[in-house]
Specification:
The protein is about 75% helix and about 0% strand. By secondary structure, it is mainly α.
């Protein structure tokens, strides 16, 4: 007899679906009702996500706390299956936190800047949660499309030429990725006869050598679709522009979309190629090299940008590259550090997108370009009047709070102590450095990439921060409401929280990583016992 807690697995999909549908039926005119529904939905999602993390991490002596929800109670090989484990629970929790932050920030004014912001956000959350919880490739494709459809609206939310242009590029790139996704899924089903990720992993060792090569090619095509969504170089050219053009709350929730691609790579690659079979480690070297190149490209973009929103967008590329390079190392200890980095970077980048809108509110249009010009050729009038000016400037309380928040974002993204970004990069590098003299070229390259990307980030953010908060602050101080700064401070407080509680958080990540690198646990948790025993090594 099933417990009511078993039905919590489907709640992250059903709750925003019902809330979004009710908002559409209510119409845009009933804003108070929509606001209440949206707040109740994201608050409920957050509570459910916390409960799911508790269910997935019930006992330390049970490393595979895999819970399977079979719609219609059909067998796992035929039913639409949702799978809850530590990784999917973690991703649902991250999505819920960002949903709360984006929604609260939008209450100030952004939900009125365009039509149907609240339903779009709810359907976005539904698609994200479905992608993280699904147990088969076809429904992963379905939920990818479900999350992409509202993301098109969120990118365009607020209108404007820049958003329309970026939205068209975003639409075209993601439609191409979806086509590759569909081709890869079709090839896999034709060759392996299944789209269940657990069953595919179980059957992979039973394939003939020639069929296995074709399945590997199909998975590579599927991987390209995932990597496009993750923003890997050279396929991530669209990402900084699209994210920079989006409104602040839209960009905050969109910042986790690139991590959906990373999640799919992590889940499928370790499930199929993380064991000791004939194809073990397939594509790992490519992931590592492509990740490092993406880190380099993102670092150059961070240094070269003249726009604060594009700086945040380029930081998304750096974070995606770091995660993919760490995954490609194929070590459970490195993967655990990457998961900690995932949490830290998602919170910091979302906070930065929200913060930038508040900082730029009081600045003149094109202030970033003017600042670069002034650095290059100087400001004659300013130099002539310097002798008559007072030394230093007075910093109002609002700007002080924004400045300290910006500094915290810079420290986390650059990986400097004492915040979580430093611990995250240290957790990735510590297993590599522990090998001492056995460090290889790949290890040294990853170490150098992480250090230099941190240097590039701190240089770029210091330059931007000095200009925004000290050298040329706005002539008039824009009004910042508590409801706008609260989500930023909340996300940064979570970065502080995972720093203070680094021990328990890292233990969760280490257990998660060990489970991912032992795919038989996932297979046994999803498939019927008879089918799972056939796949046992």
């Amino acid at each position: 007899m099933s417990s009511w807690t078993d039905h919590l697995v489907i709640a992250p999909i059903v709750v925003p679906l019902i809330a979004g549908a009710l908002m559409v039926l209510a119409g845009e005119g009933r804003r108070t009702i929509n606001n209440i529904l949206a707040l109740a939905s994201v608050a409920g999602l957050l509570l459910v996500a916390l409960a799911l993390v508790g269910l997935a991490d019930t006992a330390a002596q049970a490393p595979s706390q895999t819970r399977v929800y079979r719609l219609g109670d059909w067998p796992a090989l035929f039913a639409i299956v949702l799978v809850l484990d530590r990784l999917s629970a973690l991703m649902v929790l991250l999505t819920s936190v960002l949903g709360v932050a984006a929604l609260v920030f939008s209450f100030a004014r952004w939900y009125r800047a365009g039509a149907y912001f609240h339903p779009l956000l709810q359907f976005q959350l539904m698609g994200l949660n479905g992608a993280f919880l699904t147990g088969d490739l076809f429904n992963l494709f379905v939920f990818f499309e479900v999350l992409l459809a509202p993301s098109y609206g969120l990118v365009l939310h607020g209108s404007g030429i820049a958003r329309a242009r970026a939205g068209l590029h975003y639409l075209a790139v993601n439609l191409a990725a979806s086509l590759l996704f569909l081709i890869g899924v079709s090839m896999i089903y034709g060759l392996a006869g299944t789209l269940s990720m657990a069953d595919l992993a179980a059957r992979f060792g039973e394939l003939r050598a020639e069929d296995r090569a074709l399945v590997e090619a199909a998975i590579a095509i599927l991987g390209v679709a995932f990597l496009i969504k993750a923003g890997i170089w050279p396929l991530g050219f669209w990402l900084p522009t699209a994210y920079a053009a989006a409104s602040a709350p839209s960009a905050a929730i969109l910042s986790i979309l690139s991590k959906v691609g990373v999640y799919a790579v992590l889940r499928l690659w370790l499930l199929l190629f993380g064991g000791d079979g004939a194809s073990a480690g397939f594509g790992g070297g490519f992931l590592m090299i492509a990740g490092i190149v993406t880190i380099a490209f993102g670092s150059f973009a961070v240094l070269a940008t003249q726009s604060m929103p594009r700086l945040a967008g380029a930081s998304v590329l750096v974070s995606s590259g770091t995660l993919l390079a760490a995954i490609g190392m194929g070590q459970a200890a490195v993967t655990s550090g990457a998961l900690y980095y995932l949490v830290s970077s998602v919170f910091a980048i979302a906070a930065l997108f929200l913060l930038i809108e508040l900082v730029e509110r009081s600045r003149e249009v094109g202030a970033d370009v003017i600042a670069v010009t002034r650095e290059a050729i100087g400001d004659v009038e300013e130099e002539a009047e310097q002798s008559d000016e007072e030394t230093g400037i007075a910093i109002p309380g609002t700007m002080a709070v924004l400045g300290m928040s910006f500094l915290a974002c810079a420290l986390v993204l650059a990986g400097l102590p004492p915040l979580s970004g430093f611990l995250a990069k240290f957790a990735i590098l510590a297993p590599l450095l522990a090998s001492g003299a056995d460090l290889g070229a790949a290890d040294w390259t990853l170490l150098a990439a992480l250090v230099l990307s941190g240097l590039a980030t701190i240089i770029a953010m210091t330059r931007v921060g000095i200009d925004a908060f000290w050298a040329s602050p706005g002539a008039t101080l824009a009004r910042v409401r508590v409801i706008e700064i609260a989500p930023v401070l909340g996300l940064l407080f979570l970065c502080v929280g995972i720093t203070v509680k680094a021990g328990p958080v890292m233990r969760y990540m280490e257990t998660t990583a060990r489970s991912l690198h032992a795919p038989q646990e996932y297979i046994r948790g999803v498939l019927p016992p008879s089918r799972a025993e056939r796949s046992a090594p």
